[in-house]
Inverse folding.
């Protein structure tokens, strides 16, 4: 996750309330125009102070009610032209029960703003853009040469040992368009009450420092929401930058100590060299709701936690990086995962659309669509590693064009294998059998396959299912492929009310001697079957029309 254990702070972390600028209490503010914050303040320039035009910011009523003090940062002396740094102004204005408002303009920061142990602070921008000073050298995420100095962050709002409570951060844009720009925009540790909305990162993060966001809700009963955080231009690999973190930045990092419930709503991440969204600890719950995640080169969304979920998300992999694994979704460590109403589209030989790892105890993939586009080199669709826990794949479609598995169920082929249930899954597409012959590869015992539709008309011996493990049950469903729809080497495989047919005129099933006590009941096998010496084979009430 590329996060050092300690960093050099910049800024005192304590507000200095003095004569610079002014603070407006809610009572005083409400005597003016409700909903609009207007000031005619003094603006520091490179020459001398000059009178500014009135800067008006529309504020939601709920924010007016929430904060005792509202500070217009320009009225407090900040330069909205991006010429003079605002670091001292931030230090002197940010305090508990205070909302700092950034009117439209451009604001320069040359050091990290750090505040810990706070309660109810806010930062609100209205078409406001933040930039950082020139960075010439970096070591261990600390700027060692340039206009910017210290830890490579804009805002560090709480730390793990001194988190804040009730943080609002809304509406600010960070400009990373010029070369050698991009540091962490916001790092926030709260016990409860995290609210981040409409934060946009423009341009590629290309300094080789920590990625634009880290969030942590440090208590189990705490909660937070991150809405419409957008970094569509991603980040450069460290090897192409002046920085030194491993591989490159992560887009949004959820701290491993985060213990509460965090929602990420309608966010957007482009390609990051590490993970896009990385939930790095399993102590809390994270819900990813809507949004688009593209091309990150470890995983676009890497999820951990208890009852964490991904709903209504679009994941796209269409820019491949040679020699680095790329996955759409990775379910890592936790229980009761849910991936629902989500689309994963992969063009080219990435690794997996969805990968479920050993420490995922229970997972459900429901109403999803997976498209594996590239006929020259496809990714795998859904893959379970050997010791992954129970997985249910329900009402999901997989379209596969390249010679790969649509579903790959790894396992140990013993009684301890957790069940994989596939129900109402549809697998289509013209994938050939060049390197991966079958659409579904079963190496895990105790599987159940209900009412599947598998249609694989691709050439070069393309098949529907190869069964290499014991005690798998196929109930209902239609299986059609160019070669044998079923290859069985597992014992106690049972087919009940299935229909299977070869487009190439082959038998519907080929049964090897390794698989004993196979039962076919109430089914239709076009062309019948080939029995290669399977002991205990039983066929009952099954039609075998010509192929």
């Amino acid at each position: 996750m590329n996060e050092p254990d300690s960093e050099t702070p910049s800024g005192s972390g304590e507000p200095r309330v003095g004569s610079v600028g002014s603070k407006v209490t809610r009572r005083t503010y409400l005597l003016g125009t409700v909903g609009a914050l207007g000031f005619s303040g003094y603006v520091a320039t490179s020459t001398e102070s000059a009178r500014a035009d009135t800067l008006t910011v529309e504020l939601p009523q709920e924010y007016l009610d929430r904060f005792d003090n509202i500070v217009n940062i320009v009225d407090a002396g900040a330069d909205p032209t991006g010429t003079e740094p605002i670091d001292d102004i931030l230090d002197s204005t940010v305090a508990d029960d205070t909302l700092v408002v950034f009117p439209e303009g451009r604001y320069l920061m040359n050091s990290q703003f750090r505040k810990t142990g706070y309660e109810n602070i806010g930062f609100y921008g209205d078409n406001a853009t933040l930039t950082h000073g020139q960075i010439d050298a970096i070591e261990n995420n600390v700027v060692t040469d340039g206009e910017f100095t210290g830890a490579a962050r804009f805002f560090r709002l709480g730390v793990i040992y001194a988190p804040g409570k009730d943080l609002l951060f809304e509406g600010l844009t960070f400009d990373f368009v010029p070369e050698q720009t991009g540091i962490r925009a916001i790092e926030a540790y709260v016990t409860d009450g995290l609210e981040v909305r409409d934060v946009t990162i423009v341009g590629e993060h290309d300094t080789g420092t920590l990625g634009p966001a880290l969030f942590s809700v440090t208590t189990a009963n705490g909660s937070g929401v991150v809405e419409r955080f957008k970094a569509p231009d991603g980040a450069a690999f460290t090897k192409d930058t002046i920085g030194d973190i491993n591989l490159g930045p992560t887009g949004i990092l959820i701290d491993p100590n985060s213990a509460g419930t965090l929602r990420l709503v309608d966010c957007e991440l482009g390609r990051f060299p590490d993970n896009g969204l990385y939930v790095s600890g399993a102590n809390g719950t994270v819900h990813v709701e809507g949004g688009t995640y593209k091309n990150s080169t470890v995983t676009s969304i890497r999820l951990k936690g208890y009852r964490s979920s991904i709903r209504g998300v679009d994941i796209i992999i269409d820019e491949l990086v040679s020699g680095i694994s790329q996955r759409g979704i990775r379910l890592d460590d936790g229980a009761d995962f849910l991936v629902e109403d989500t689309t994963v589209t992969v063009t080219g030989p990435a690794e997996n659309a969805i990968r479920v790892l050993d420490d995922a105890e229970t997972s459900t993939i429901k109403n999803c669509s997976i498209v594996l586009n590239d006929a020259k080199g496809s990714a795998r669709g859904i893959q379970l590693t050997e010791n992954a826990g129970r997985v249910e794949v329900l009402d999901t479609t997989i379209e596969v064009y390249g010679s790969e598995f649509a579903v790959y169920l790894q396992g140990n082929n013993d009684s301890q294998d957790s069940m994989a249930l596939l129900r109402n899954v549809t697998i289509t597409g013209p994938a050939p059998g060049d390197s991966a012959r079958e659409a579904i590869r079963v190496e895990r015992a105790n599987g159940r396959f209900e009412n599947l539709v598998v249609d694989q008309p691709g050439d070069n011996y393309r098949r529907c299912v190869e069964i290499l493990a014991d005690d798998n049950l196929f109930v209902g469903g239609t299986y059609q492929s160019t070669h044998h729809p079923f290859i069985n080497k597992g014992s106690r495989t049972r087919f009940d009310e299935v229909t299977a047919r070869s487009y190439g005129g082959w038998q519907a099933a080929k049964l090897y001697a390794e698989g004993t006590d196979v039962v076919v009941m109430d089914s239709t096998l076009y062309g019948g079957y080939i029995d290669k010496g399977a002991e205990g084979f039983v066929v009952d009430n099954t039609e075998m029309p010509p192929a």
Observations:
- The helical segments are 26-30, 61-66, 87-93.
- The chain is about 5% helix and 45% strand.
- The mean pLDDT is 91.
